[in-house]
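User: I'm preparing a small set of examples for a lab meeting where we compare how different chains pack in three dimensions. I only have the primary sequence for this one, and I'd like the structure in token form so I can line it up with the others. Please keep the answer compact; I'll paste it straight into my notes.
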Amino acid sequence: MAHLGARSCATPTRIERRLAAILSADAKGYSRLMAADDVGTLRTLNAHRSVMRAIIDAYGGRLVDDPGDNLLAEFASGVSGVCCAVEIQCALGARNARLAEDRRLEFRIGVNFGDVIAHGARLYGDAVNIAARIEALAESGGVCVSGLVHDQAVSRLALHWELLGERSLKNIGRLVRVYRLQFEPQLARDLHATRSPLIGRASVAVLPFRQLSPADELHHVGAGIVERIIGALAAIPDIFVVSPSVTTRFTAGHDVGVIGRELGVRYVLSGTIRRTASDLRISTELADVATRTILWARKTDACGVNLVALEERITELTVRTIAVQVRDAETRRALRMRPPNVDHETDRGLTRVAC
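Assistant: Understood. Below is the structure token output for the 355-residue chain.
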């Protein structure tokens, strides 16, 4: 059962793959309630949706679709998806408590994490379908998650989990480990107060590189470098990289403090790309959100036309260096030490990639 995004008349965009947490929700008993009182049920549904949209936005999610009594949202991490699901259920529970028992509209929520195919606003793939299948296992007003989401959240959120075991899900060719979330209203208040799902792990947002030259091919070079950097950083166990789907509205030059608050990250990697007389110049910098200081910066000049080799080399130079910078910064944070003077932290070297 695939969920589709809103219809669009825009020119079709390229198909891309990315990792994302998918939240799938639907209202139990919706058809029965509509048959009994369609106007009243629609009014309750719209009110509930308004609450859900606000909470999704607060946790940095993206509403993908909300047809009928269903809702699909995308998050950068399973942890933020779980936080959002808990707060949604607590908020809707409070609203339903004010309604007559036979008029309550209760949602079931499933959260999964995996590879999705994005085409415009739409999402496809097993990761989406599994979220919908897991949702069907949840109780009214409850939340179920996949094993992947549980493993991301278990050490970061003070929640209680019930293992439902390895489940066979319709049209899914493998068993999926499923957990049921057991929570109390106080947990939603705690999560609302922090609104920082990435606590306890170094978190990085990689912004789209800003193109400073009119050449069209530079856009593809910058996008390729960003994609490779995200993939390489995501493979490092102690570093969390937010999904590129939530960073597209930011570029180099934005206030890193604002970016950090909106995306819930500690570090921001940004860059620019321009064509000089005969070369390309790629500038990158890593900023600490809390102190608004530049931890590391580099300008790299490259000549030649082998763009694939260029992307690989820039990625290697960048990831190898910022992984060390992030770990050092995290150590200082843990020891509650004041960061050294930014002049000592900044690498202003100029690296030239051989032709």
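A couple of notes for your slides: The longest helix spans residues 307-334. The chain has two domains: 15-194, 202-353.

User: Perfect, thanks.
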